[in-house]
Amino acid sequence: MVNGPTRTRLRRLARMYAAISVSISSGVWTLAFTSASRFTVAYMRIGELADRAGTTTRSLRYYEEQGLLPARRTANGYRDYDEDDLRAVNEIRSLLAIGFALEDTRPFVECLRAGNPTGDVCPASVAVYRRKLAELDDCIERLQAVRAQVAAAVDRNTGEESCCKKSRTRTSGTGC
Fold first, then answer.
1. What is the per-residue pLDDT for 36?
2. Rounded distance, CA 90 to CA 54, Å?
3. Nearest 5°: phi and psi at 6?
4. Which pLDDT score is estimated for 159?
5. Are 109 and 68 a contacting pair, CB within 8 Å?
6. Phi/psi of residue 20, each to 5°?
7. What's the pLDDT at 42?
8. Beta carbons of 9 and 19 less than 8 angstroms apart
9. How do the domains of the chain map onto residue ranges?
10. 165 CB burial (10 A radius; 0-12, 13-18, 19+)
11. What does CATH list as the number for 46-134?
12. Where are the alpha helices (DSSP H) in the chain?
């Protein structure tokens, strides 16, 4: 027979690990889980992690060197990674793909490592987003100023005879 504290622990486990059902039969508790991966940690070597993340082993070693991807080592020195490491690498790659610097990814990775479902829910990550947004706004403002200058140059020269046409008629096709 399962005593009270054990029953409470089993129920807590069921909630924690997304159990589909909890049943008792002849004093034996049975838990059916949505994912067995919660209980087994499958380690992968650096090549498998690189393949699954769509990157290179060289990049992974660089992330490790920068302190973004700490690797566990086996007795024979091989690096071992798990699903959390894969999530961290995917977070790093997605941020790099949209223009963030590698150092900017650190708060996002730390947020994931702290057990959060995504890397952008922590205050440090939000601060990086805000800083990047300010940089983008500044860049957009500068680009709009350049665009206005180019548009003004086009407007000034629209409808007038171009310098190339004038040059060709005067100097037998030397161009601008």
1. 45
2. 9
3. -65, -40
4. 66
5. yes
6. -75, -40
7. 72
8. no
9. 4-38, 46-134
10. exposed
11. 1.10.1660.10
12. 4-16, 46-53, 57-65, 83-97, 106-113, 123-157, 163-171
